[in-house]
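Q: Could you write out the predicted structure for this multi-component system? I'm mainly interested in how the pieces pack against one another.
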Amino acid sequence: MKNIMDNIKRLKDQGRKVIGCFPLYPPLELFHSMGLAPVTLWGLRDSLPRVAESDRHIQPYACSVARRLMEFLLKENSSALDGLFMYNACDTLRNLPEIIDCGLADAGRPPLPIFKMHIPAVPPDQTDSRPYLRASIEGLIGELEKTCNVTFAPDKFRRSISLYREMRELSKMLFASVADGSMSYGEFSRIVTEGWFIPVEDQLLVLQSALRDNFRKKTKPSPESPRVVVSGILPPPLPMIRDLENAGITVVGNDVASQNRALHYSPPAVDDPAEYYIDFYHHHYPCTTLLHSADRRLPAIRKLVSDTGARGVVFVGEKFCEYEYFEFPYLEQILKEMGIRALLLDISLDDDENTAAYTTRIETFAELMHSTV
Amino acid sequence: MANENTAKSGHQKTAAGRRLSKIMFNDYMNLHQKAGEGAFVVWMAIVVPAELFSGFENVVYGVPESHAAMSAGKGVGPLQCEKAEKMGYSMDLCSYARIDLGTAFDGGKDSPTMGLPKPHLIVSNNNNCSLLVKWFDIYHRTWGVPHFILDVPFCYEPQNARDLDYIVTQYRDLIRTIENLSGQTFNIERVREALENTRDALANWKRFLKTAASRPAGLTAFDSFVQMAPYLTSRGTKTLADHYRLLAEEAEDNIAKGIYPVPNERYRLLWDNIAPWHQLSRMSSRLASLDVNLISASYTYCIGTVEGELDLFAYDGGDPLVYLARMQNSSICPHGMSLRFRAMRRAIEDWGVDGVIFASNRSCKVYSIMQMDMLKRVTNELGIPAVMIDVDHADMRKYSEEQSFTRIEALLEVIDARRKEAKLS
């Protein structure tokens, strides 16, 4: 928590207005171009092991992402934010804005402006949702200008696009270091997670430095090392990543929402933010939460497995995330037909600290993979 | 004494109940029969506007959620859930979905209605519940059936013009999709006729619900739970309009004759969440034995209304697509907390509710996540005691009767204590 809050306070000290964004795929470039500092409020796992405040407002069968988000806001962190942004990412998250209002009121704290946006969920070949999304983006800009006393400028937007594009490209290059064995997946996850809470300019410096270090110590993984794709909303908890690596498994493919699904695609720079985000959401890397991308998801998984030469997929199930869990049986079947092994690890909020139960399953999975390499 | 025995026995099947059984039997028989004769079959989520399908000569529809509720009510919920779980579907997923997947992939075996005939098109919507889209995607992928997603923005406030236009655009695309797939031509006049039937049906539905204001109440929420079924399978028909007229008349007539479902009613409670389908009989009997009447439920009073209202939002004869787009917000789950609270306040005040049972339901996060704050608001702002119990709407394995009734009895004690205090002061 301290690091996250230190980062946010640093932004405030620089005179930036900070917008806390609900996961998963907020329009970061837009906020940045308007002089706002967006922080995406996921990856709070290491900072918030307990969610006592959240438990007064949300039942324990909500996912850990929502519960930690709530906890973060109710633990007096809301005063460090100038606003929140949320979109229709899932049924749980869409209920949160008014619960947050209640929680802040209970604590005697002022309400936070909450900017809400509906991102169309229809496939483009079914309904042309572009006019709707255009109006939504334009509405959001108008609201931000009015509430935060900022203005939109096309040249600044282009610059922000280029910064975020570079950040995404460097992040993908860094992941390539994980895949080629010269970097720990745990270290990659740490860097990406911290990146959600620092300005994109600083993120670029961190990524460039990490890439330089990895270039110097480049090694090749053992050819016998079992190669897997990791899939889920959040990366596995660090102790679980250590278990994977101790078992000799190399993570060569990434289908994690807070990592590659978020980083994969950057549209070309344009002046028109509506045009940019129409492209961004329509062509976004398929995600279980982007309902319109369902038909592209299976081919994307197949391609990822095939391109990386993975022999297994580790699903990191975010407990109670229905979007993910509805797909597991089907994906497992598809992978089986491809001769790819699958391992599902359910991670609930308490499991972040108690991963020992998974060690045996990971070791067994690794042994099975070794036997078929 | 005879009257008291009747009161203690809980929910009784009335003439309307017997008529309901016939309607439901006919609806499912017709669905299977017409599908067998070549009708174009749609599977739809409950908030998809079924009246649109009336615009076609030969389109029939099945409602997986409604079928799952019926399966749960008939006691086969866990059996069908287990089939889905054996296929790898997590027990944490919605029990309607697990029942439906278990039924569909086992060819309708063990279903009270032989399941549903296989669809030519699946239509989901995401404002009532967005996981429906994922659930229906499974059929889309497995069977290669087209899946049309109705994308309806969630409402924290009454629907705005931009959202309404967006929904109407999608209806036009849906109509075009059905025309292309079925080869049938759409006729908007048929939809208009269907909406007139729906308007009459809903007006009488509201009349029926208003008998809750009587003391004792003229209905129980359990009656409304079972009687909502044909609204999902017969929308837009004269059969439904006639049935709800007779239902309302029967309830009013019973009040006039002094016949009440819980004659010794001492506690008038409101239920917040989907019906506990597997417990209708047991729960209503046990509550009646405690002189408790669940006189209302947010699950059924939202039918026919829009955002935060309790009164009927009636079809006015205008553009059917515009009306249907407004009614896309007619369920409870598409509403934010403020709107839900506004409607609940009206129900509590208009119908004299003594306490609220918030049924926290793991299978329906969209309904349940916000209930903890709703409970506080009901208690603090309205001064009405409330309790939260855990009930899964269709999977009885996730329900403990004793735990629930311990809490409900505690609620009754609070109501009694308040009454004593009020008397003393």
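A: Regarding packing and overall arrangement: Residues 401-424 of chain B form the longest helix (24 residues).
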